[in-house]
Amino acid sequence: MNKYPFGSNNPKSFNAYPRGDFDIKSGTIKRTRSRKSSIYPVRMVKSWANRLHYYYKLHPLFVFSISLAFGVTILIVLSLYEQHYRVLRNYMKLDDGFGSYYPFAKLKNLVMVAGHSVYTSSSCEKADKEDSWFLESYQKNPGQAATFLAHIKEGIESTALDDEALLLFSGGETRKDAGPRSEAQSYWTVADSEGWFGKEESLKWRALTEEHARDSFENLLFSVCRFRELTGTYPHNITVVSYDFKEERFAQLHRSAIGFPESRFLYRGTPAPVTSIEAALKGEALVRTQFQEDPYGCMGSLKRKKLGRDPFHRSVPYPKGCPEIEGLFRYCGAAPYRTSLPWTV
């Protein structure tokens, strides 16, 4: 029997001091914080971990598959976001009041004339004569030189119709026996000797060259990069000038390879000499097949042909002037390039 009236089991028992630490000096009670709020998240995590462990024991393959799929999804989302962010970040035009840094910043559209030969004559008065040009065996046809002039004139006229267009003659130093002279510079020189076909005042200042391309795909890709170097941005519209029988190669194969929108791509074709059209069509069919199998011209016969058109071992400066599409320059494969590009963002 309990002799003390204030035992712990007595209904009248009480705590002499409230719960907490009593400070004798200040006469106050230091309340202790409840640990429930800080422990709860830990308990919740442990609970989920225990459940996951339990399900893993019951269905190990299923849980592993779900976890793997979740992880892969996160990686893909982060990768796409990073690529998209990088393109947008690099694509920021260096303006900030210094728009004049790019000499042709106001031009928005590209007209590209693909070069096919090097002008070798010391006089520009015979531009329509075959012996003024360095011709390969398959090009030695009556009227061949006239087709080069037709391309130059078509490029000038197409550019003259658009006050916001930049004209680029494209083509490198592709012929060893012609010396270190580029196709692009040849076309520009001939255009200048012809007085720009009556449009010198309005057009000469916005007609330039791209002097490194070694095949038709590089004519397009390198000209896009050259446009970026000169304007600080990428072309909104592209017009390509070449032979009419090459339209499918440029407008479908090459355009698709760089992912440029079809609605903003225009092709201007001029006819080949009548005496060579049959051989030209046969050769074009072969080249189209090669580009269908190797869209970026980086393997097999297309690569060997390209190397053969670089007799002076010129270093290609691109993509230094167009860092946003560096991945496109480095890519080599039969499948289309899938990463975001400035004209697809």
Automatic annotation (TrEMBL):
- Give the record's keywords alphabetically: Membrane, Transmembrane, Transmembrane helix
**Could you name the domain of life of the organism this protein comes from?**
Eukaryota
Q: Where are the transmembrane segments?
A: 61-81
Q: Name one GO cellular component term.
A: cytoplasm
Q: What is this protein called?
A: DUF218 domain-containing protein
Q: What is the lineage of its organism?
A: Eukaryota, Viridiplantae, Streptophyta, Embryophyta, Tracheophyta
